[in-house]
TrEMBL record:
Family matches, as Pfam families: CN_hydrolase
Protein name: Carbon-nitrogen hydrolase family protein
Domain CN hydrolase stretches: 4-251
Keywords: Hydrolase
InterPro entries: C-N_Hydrolase, C-N_Hydrolase_sf, Nit1/2_C-N_Hydrolase
Gene3D superfamilies the record matches: Carbon-nitrogen hydrolase (3.60.110.10)
Organism: Leptospira andrefontaineae
GO terms assigned for molecular function: hydrolase activity, acting on carbon-nitrogen (but not peptide) bonds, in linear amides
PANTHER family found in the cross-reference section: DEAMINATED GLUTATHIONE AMIDASE, NITRILASE-RELATED
């Protein structure tokens, strides 16, 4: 069965694209040097700034991001989940896009975030993601990696919609990434319990690389990148600050849990 080392990268991204990508590359190289074969980056890792600048620089952000990760995944023979980043959409907005790059450097998976963060969570900031982001319309596929197992991804606010995870599980996922930039106020209240719930109810691994700290205009993200196993155990918690979280993954745990409590087979259409 598949055993491997996972690396989750926790960042405090800002408006300097090149600096953000350099930090990402440094952590990727560190993870690979430790033996990590699967590495996850958080939402907004190449750019976290104003809506105006995001729209103006979307093509630059997407091009630089894809070029870097395609190249480095091939050079280091690793699989990389690129958490949400802006890519141009046809209507003048952007998609919040997640891509998996295989060890051959090729794109194996692409997803556009479906659920957009239009909220007033109580931290004094109004969030209206839909002003600049076009909602995706397609349920994520599952990348069936010969080396690692079956991998999929959602993005951040998608975490609050369990029906999306159920649809992904129907596509044979064993591991679901949740790259995020959770606000501190919602993260303190909901982050851990939501991630553990999604792992337990879907009997899969949840990998959640996150943003951390203070960003433009006082926006504060929660950090605490988490690795949760199919039983709901937390295998790793990055706490606060930029860092690399390394965790040993044994995919046999998925099969063990699904055999103990075959809840996925007991589902009924209600």
């Amino acid at each position: 069965m598949h055993r491997f080392l996972l690396g989750l990268i926790q960042l405090n991204s800002g408006t300097d694209i090149d600096l953000n990508l350099q930090k990402s590359e440094n952590f990727i190289r560190e993870a690979a040097s430790e033996g990590a074969k699967l590495i996850g980056l958080p939402e907004n890792f190449p750019f976290l700034g104003s809506e105006k600048e995001k729209l103006e620089r979307a093509e630059e952000i997407a091009t630089k991001t894809v070029n870097l990760l395609s190249d480095i995944s091939k050079k280091l023979n690793i699989t990389i989940l690129a958490g949400g980043f802006p890519s141009p959409a046809p209507n003048g907005k952007v998609f919040n896009t997640s891509i998996i790059f295989g060890p051959d450097g090729k794109e194996k998976f692409e997803y556009h975030k479906i659920h957009l963060f239009d909220t007033d969570p109580g931290d004094g900031i109004e969030y209206r993601e839909s002003r600049t982001v076009e909602s995706g319309q397609i349920v994520p596929e599952t990348y069936k990696s010969p080396e690692l197992g079956n991998i999929s991804s959602v993005i951040c606010y998608d975490l609050r919609f369990p029906e999306l995870f159920r649809e992904i599980i129907k596509k044979d996922a064993e591991m679901i990434f949740v790259p995020s930039a959770f606000t501190k106020i919602t993260g303190q209240a909901h982050w851990e319990v939501l991630l553990r719930a999604r792992a337990i109810e879907n009997q899969c691994f949840i990998f959640a690389p996150a943003q951390t700290g203070i960003h433009l205009k006082g926006r504060e993200t929660y950090g605490h990148s988490l690795v949760v196993d199919p039983w709901g155990n937390i295998l790793g918690d990055a706490g606060e600050g930029e860092k690399l979280l390394l965790t040993e993954i044994d995919l046999e745990e998925v099969r063990k849990v699904r055999k103990k409590i075959p809840a996925l087979k007991h589902r009924r259409n209600i």
